[in-house]
Amino acid sequence: MKSVALFSLFLFCVGANANSQIKGEKVEINVRELGSPGSVWPQPQHYSSTTQTYAVVAEAFQFVYSSTSHKCDLLTEAFKRYETLIYNNVATIKLKYFPRDVASIKTLEVDLMSPCEDYPSDHMKESYALDVADKASLTSDTVWGILRGLETFSQLLWASDSNQVVVNKTNIIDYPRYAFRGVMIDTARHYLPLNAILQTLDAMSYNKFNVLHWHIVDDQSFPYVSDVYPDLSIKGAYDDRTHIYTREDIAAVIEFARLRGIRVIPEFDSPGHSTSWGKGQPGLLTPCYSNGKPDGTFGPINPTLNSTYTFVKNLFGDVKQVFHDNYIHLGGDEVQFNCWQSNPNITKWMSDKNITGDYSKLEQVYIQNVIDISETIGYSYIVWQEVIDNGVKVQSDTVVEVWKNNHPDQEVAKVTAMGLRAIVSAPWYLNIISYGQDWHKYYQYDPSNFNGTAEQKALVMGGEACIWGEYVDATNLSPRLWPRASAVAERLWSAESVNDVDAAYPRLDQQRCRMIRRGIPAQPLYIGFCPHEWKNY
What we know:
By secondary structure, the chain is of the alpha/beta class. It has 17 helices and 22 strands. Strands 5, 6, 7, 8, 9, 10, 11 and 12 form an eight-stranded mixed β-sheet that branches. An eight-stranded parallel β-sheet has the order 15-14-13-22-21-20-19-18. The protein has a two-stranded antiparallel ribbon with strand order 1-2. β13 (180-186), α3 and β14 (211-215) form a beta-alpha-beta unit. The longest helix is centred in the C-terminal third of the chain and has 18 residues, at 360-377.
């Protein structure tokens, strides 16, 4: 077996990366060569590069505004962050003296052509142009495009065999294929401390994700601290002192995400997945009956009581004061009807209202009320696909998340045929693990690969990688997410034609080593190593 040495500013990665095929008791090893140094992940839309290189004076390197550029604190903070990344990642390398006749780059001139926006949003623009030659420049109409361009520039830098930090002459024009590129975390099955969430946001920014979908509460626990209903966390959290998210905690997450161009969308899933809600809000859940009597157990939120909707309105009003995004995820999935069916009061209410047939009609009543409440408060909303499958009437701006993996293409076709926008997560449940390089299947799934018109395909906003928390906490969150989520990131950012796993492997291996270098504990793709990885553990 041979090893291919490749030093990169953020990688310093020697890859003995191999494919093995088992035939009987023999193992055949084919070593994959690493990609060109300074490869970018996700792959830009338009990229050209030459063998000409420029020395980069890393210890003195600076990002500077052009004379015509708009300025803002968000961008100034980004400059500091990336200058620190560059310096810290070469601090352990003895860089050789640059001869005076070697062309060098000491600055990247940044031209932000429009005033900064305060928060990323569903209509944010992220395109940018990056040119590295005798003069290095980065241009974008928006601060979000500048952020993506800074990340790309940081990945272009590498170290030559003589340990000189260099960058190739490069021209890039780049933009995302999909507007919604998310990662979903679950903080109800296992509580995730703030540092784990912030580390996830850092890794997301390295892969150009732009949405953190925060599934913050569920059956198991209610860690969200509500000002209007404090008993929800006092009685519903695993521990009301240590396993909670205060307003200050959430503000810290949102600010950290904002600085990286990442939206934070909360999910409060109901009427199912709400056992923990009932611990702090008596009368909210439906009493279940056996043999004509309450049996002491409770089912989904009771949709027949006016008090239910007063509660939801007050809670969501509280949430709206904390989370700044225009969207809330309302859930609506996996509602079990047997408890509703067992309760004679529910049955009588349905009869009085002339609601007949499947109990999904009762779910429709609840979801429709919650949708109306959300709109009154000022939220646009996302729902899981069951809401549409069960026939709830929704507004034309509803976003439907397709998560069931049996026939996701058919579901996307159905949703978009109704004129509704779709987010796809069905093929990207990264909490499910399998032996081998399962990133291949994540990389090769295309959200627009369904039987539909061009107009329907334009309604696909993008997708997200989900990491549900039944078997995931802070100890294994990052290794299970990365670099498997990186495969999703490139699928959602890069051109549709960028789909060859063999071509992607060496670049993804570099990206994994880059994340290791930056302190993200990303698991290996396959056989090989990053020479610096031992320094982080």
